[in-house]
């Protein structure tokens, strides 16, 4: 959001500076497109009459004193040349001298773009009839107070004025977007019952429309997810009730069953048990879909959790080799130890199920860049590359998993395609990430990454 604020602010500044520059430029060339230059010639009649009257009454000394008074008028100068062409003033600009002795009679010279905007000359006489030449010079207004300084100070003033106004307007435009971004972040983190700020909802522009539509969308999604989770809980509850009755009926059937019926009853018991476990997994996923309270989270030693999972795996799979190594025995994360153990257990069970006979599962724990990394690798056939991402979705299994025999199922392997999906959701719930990759030496490698916390030692 800082980017859009800077863009809007820069747009205000650039627009204002360009507008100020154009205004100053137009002020410079204003007289070229107006008749002000021509209108300035009219007052010279008064200067001519005054100069001639002063010359006739006081002679050259009084006329010189009158010429010196023009120093108090920075936009107008006057010069007088005697009948010999000698100026009464010592300092006469070259342009004025050239114009005074030019052979263009007594026509005025107008140059709107020059420092000297207008030059007007006229003859005046003293009491003895001697002819003098009066030259009146009108300076361009911008030349009086220094054109570069005029433009420079104008741009500085514009920058200060429009800089403040642009900042205020930019903040006014981007503040509701910042507030809306916070709401979207809360929504993305799982808090669907997010409240959009009132100052956004009350706006009558496009930002207000966006805020109101987002609030409506969040409310609809919240209702849909609540309904979905409630439906899953209701369905699971309704399914478990008949399953419990089936289990009771199955035990009663065993009392009156003959030996030949035992195999079929075992199959019914196995499928019933699998269905009960499936319902349990679905309920676990439903709980993980919602953002759960984290106030009860505590630092968890990863190695302790993994060692317990490994001990259970070795007990259940006496023929399986599980090798555990740890670079940092004190690697800790903040979370729920029970959920983390469930995630690791699902991954280890999956690895033991798919590793080839005579091989094992390698588990390595390390700390890298403030993160605890758990790498679990089997030595099985691996997974096609195009299926790696799909394996984290519920009920997705590779072809090798689909072809497992009934004997594997009877050993306690469920095979619903939910193990990795549940593990991924648990990791995501703990602000971590879970990735799958085929190891270069063969087999599937699962990398579980969680943010570390300070050691409690």
Which key phrases capture this entry?
4-stranded antiparallel beta sheet, 5-stranded mixed beta sheet, single chain, rod-shaped, 457 residues, alpha+beta, Beta-Lactamase, Helix Hairpins, 11 strands
Question: How would you characterize the overall build of this protein?
Answer:
The longest helix is centred in the middle third of the chain and has 51 residues, at about 205-255. The protein has about 450 residues and is α+β, with helices and mostly antiparallel strands. Helix 6 (about 145-190) runs parallel beside helix 8 and helix 9 runs parallel beside helix 14 (about 420-430). It has 14 helices and 11 strands. The protein has 4 domains: about 1-30 and about 145-185, no CATH class; about 35-145, Beta-Lactamase (2-Layer Sandwich); about 190-290, Orthogonal Bundle (Helix Hairpins); about 300-450, Histidine kinase-like ATPase, C-terminal domain (Heat Shock Protein 90), CATH 3.30.565. The chain is rod-shaped, with a radius of gyration of 47 Å. About 55% of the residues lie in helices and about 15% in strands. The protein has helices at about 1-30, 35-40, 45-70, 95-100, 140-145, 145-190, 200, 205-255, 260-290, 300-315, 335-355, 400, 405-410, 420-430; strands at about 75-80, 110, 115-125, 130-140, 300, 320-325, 330-335, 360-370, 370-375, 435-440, 445-450. Strands 6-8-9-11-10 form a 5-stranded mixed beta sheet. Strand 8 (about 360-370) and strand 9 (about 370-375) form a beta hairpin. This is histidine kinase. Pfam families: HAMP (PF00672), HATPase_c (PF02518), HisKA (PF00512). It is a multi-pass membrane protein. It is an enzyme of class 2 (transferase).
């Amino acid at each position: 959001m800082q980017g859009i604020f800077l863009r809007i602010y820069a747009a205000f500044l650039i627009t204002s500076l360009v507008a100020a520059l154009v205004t100053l430029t137009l002020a410079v060339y204003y007289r070229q497109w107006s008749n002000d230059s021509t209108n300035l010639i009219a007052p010279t009649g008064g200067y001519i009459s005054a100069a001639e009257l002063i010359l006739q009454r006081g002679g050259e000394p009084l006329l010189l004193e009158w010429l010196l008074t023009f120093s108090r008028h920075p936009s107008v100068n006057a010069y007088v040349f005697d009948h010999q062409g000698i100026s009464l003033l010592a300092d006469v600009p070259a342009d004025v001298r050239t114009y005074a002795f030019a052979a263009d009679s007594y026509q005025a010279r107008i140059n709107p773009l020059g420092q000297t905007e207008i030059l007007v000359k006229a003859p005046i006489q003293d009491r003895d009839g001697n002819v003098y030449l009066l030259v009146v010079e009108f300076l361009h207004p911008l030349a009086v107070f220094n054109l570069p300084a005029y433009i420079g100070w104008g741009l500085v003033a514009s920058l200060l004025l429009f800089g403040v106004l642009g900042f205020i307007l930019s903040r006014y435009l981007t503040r509701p977007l910042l507030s809306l971004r916070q709401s979207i972040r809360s929504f993305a983190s799982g808090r669907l019952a997010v409240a959009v700020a009132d100052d956004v909802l009350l706006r009558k522009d496009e930002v207000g429309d966006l805020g109101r539509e987002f609030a409506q969308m969040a409310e609809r999604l919240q209702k849909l997810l609540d309904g979905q989770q409630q439906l899953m809980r209701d369905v699971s509850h309704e399914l478990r009730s008949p399953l419990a009755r089936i289990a009771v009926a199955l035990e009663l059937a065993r009392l009156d069953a003959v030996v030949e019926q035992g195999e079929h009853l075992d199959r019914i018991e196995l499928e019933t048990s699998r269905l009960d476990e499936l319902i349990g997994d679905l309920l676990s996923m439903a709980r993980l879909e919602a953002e759960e309270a984290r106030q009860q989270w505590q630092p968890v030693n990863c190695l302790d959790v993994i060692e317990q999972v490994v001990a259970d795996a070795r007990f259940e799979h006496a023929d399986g080799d599980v090798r555990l190594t740890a670079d940092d025995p004190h690697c800790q994360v903040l979370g729920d130890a029970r959920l983390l153990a469930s995630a690791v257990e699902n991954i280890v069970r999956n690895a033991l199920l798919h590793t080839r006979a005579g091989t094992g599962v390698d588990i390595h724990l390390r700390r890298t860049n403030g993160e605890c990394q758990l790498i679990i690798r089997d030595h099985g056939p691996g997974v096609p590359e195009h299926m790696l991402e799909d394996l984290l979705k519920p009920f997705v299994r590779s072809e090798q998993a689909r072809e497992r025999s009934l004997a594997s199922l009877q050993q306690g392997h469920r095979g619903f395609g939910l193990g990795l999906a549940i593990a991924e959701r648990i990791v995501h719930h703990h602000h971590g990430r879970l990735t799958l990759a085929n190891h270069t030496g063969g087999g599937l490698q699962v990398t579980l990454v969680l943010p570390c916390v300070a050691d409690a030692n």
